[in-house]
Design brief:
The structure is a single chain. The protein is of the alpha/beta class. Helix content is 31%, strand content 28%. It contains 13 helices and 17 strands. The strands form 4 sheets. Strands 5-6-7-3-8-9 form a 6-stranded mixed β-sheet, sandwiched between helices. Strands 13-10-12-11-15-16 form a 6-stranded mixed β-sheet, covered by helices on one side. The longest helix has 18 residues.
Length: 401
């Protein structure tokens, strides 16, 4: 059974355009101009019960807008949404008892009172019995280590402490679906690890469905079996993270340390005929780029007996590099062959980038293959449309019931 079903979901905001100068401001009073911003463009997806799904994209891609529509805070312009069998904005009072929502940059706790008092207020909002509340609170307090925090005012908590309390607040009524919008933003590595472990335990023991939006791809790698990637309001990829890596990985780098000096000019001769690239740091270390279409075992068969190898290590194309390349290209279709940069095939490069000719050959500049995503992705603007809706927008306090 699907926990979340979305079909051709669309959200358009009507935003006023402000004229410049005093004359323009006066004209705006009587004849205001508007433009339409499409934040989410006819997206469709289905998330089964018990799945942890990552929902990623650049700033302004429409992630938070989608979460707000799924949580019933925003009303879609068009399309169909069902979450836990309910239409979020229509069945709001009943629906919110089935979901938990955490916005990393907003709080559902009351700032000036103790954490436990906020929890008790939320118990009333969600109509949780005292017995269930006490049992659930004890479980969350032990798991999230909240014992010393319950009687402190929220304003005196650190960011990491507050986020643990926010998670507990979202789970007091034992929801079957949890929406997390950048829950680890600004947190240190220790707190991030604690929250990741807690979410995995929550999913494993209670079967909670989790939809996670984040810019921290380590969260995605640690938690998610599936990734939905959004760009300019449209889904450009929906599948497993492993499939994404397999599709976009351009190969791997092998790093060698030698027990005695090795001439860089001799390295290319050993891999003659293979489209690989050597980079020699010095006479006792080198790096070898092997494209994905070449079997690493075939390359190593030529090298292991011929070189005095002391140590070697492997480096795959990182998830960050892959996602950055996809953002820049605007498509998750299979990229052009070659490493995530300018690949030289074949030959040896010195550490400074100058090619070193193979023994017995004339010096020649390496051939370059341009790969998608070799420039750094620029950060997009913040999700401009998210704060602009008029009467359709609901506050987080309203979502609580």
């Amino acid at each position: 059974m699907a926990a979340i079903e979305v079909e051709r979901l669309r959200k358009t905001f009507r935003v006023p355009e402000h004229r410049e100068s005093l004359r323009g401001a006066l004209m705006d009073l009587f004849l205001r101009r508007y433009k339409e911003i499409v934040a989410v463009r006819d997206i469709s997806f289905r998330i089964p019960e018990g799945e942890i799904c990552g929902y990623i994209g650049e700033n302004g891609a429409g992630k938070s807008t989608t979460i707000k529509m799924l949580a019933g805070i925003l009303v879609p312009t068009s399309g169909r949404v069902e979450v836990a069998g309910y239409v979020p904005w229509r069945d709001r009072e009943t629906f919110v008892r089935r979901i938990g929502v955490v916005f990393g940059q907003r709080s559902q706790l009351w700032w000036d009172i103790g954490v436990i008092e906020s929890f008790r207020l939320l118990r009333k909002v969600y109509r949780v019995s005292e017995t269930d509340f006490r049992r659930r609170l004890d479980e969350l307090t032990e798991t999230l280590q909240l014992g010393d925090l319950l009687h402190r005012p929220v304003r005196k908590l650190s960011l990491g402490q507050r986020m643990r309390c926010e998670l507990a607040a979202a789970l007091l009524h034992n929801p079957s679906i949890l929406f997390l919008d950048e829950p680890t933003i600004g947190l240190d590595i220790v707190v991030k690890t604690q929250i990741r472990e807690f979410l995995k335990k929550l999913n494993r023991e209670h079967g909670t469905t989790i939809l996670l939006t984040t810019h921290d791809l380590q969260d995605i790698e640690a938690l998610c079996s599936r990734v939905i990637m959004l760009d300019e309001g449209m889904i450009i990829y929906d599948g497993s993270l492993e499939e994404l890596k397999e599709r976009w990985s351009r190969g791997r780098e092998i790093r060698f340390r030698f027990s005695e000096p090795v001439e860089p000019s001799g390295l290319a001769a050993l891999t003659d005929g293979l489209p690989v690239r050597w980079t020699a740091a010095d006479e006792e270390s080198a790096r070898l780029w092997v494209p994905r279409e070449i079997q690493v075992a075939d390359v190593l068969a030529r090298l292991v007996g011929a070189l005095p190898i002391l140590d070697m290590s492997f480096k795959e194309t990182g998830t960050d590099e892959i996602v950055r390349a996809i953002y820049q290209s605007g498509s998750a279709s299979v990229p052009a062959a070659g490493p995530a940069g300018n690949a030289s095939v074949p030959g040896v490069e010195a550490a400074g980038g100058k090619p070193v000719p193979a023994a017995g050959t004339a010096e020649a500049a390496p051939v370059s293959v341009k790969a998608a995503g070799d420039a750094a992705a620029s950060a997009g603007p913040e999700e401009a449309a998210e704060g602009e809706p008029g009467e359709e927008k609901r506050t987080e306090a309203q979502v609580r019931g």
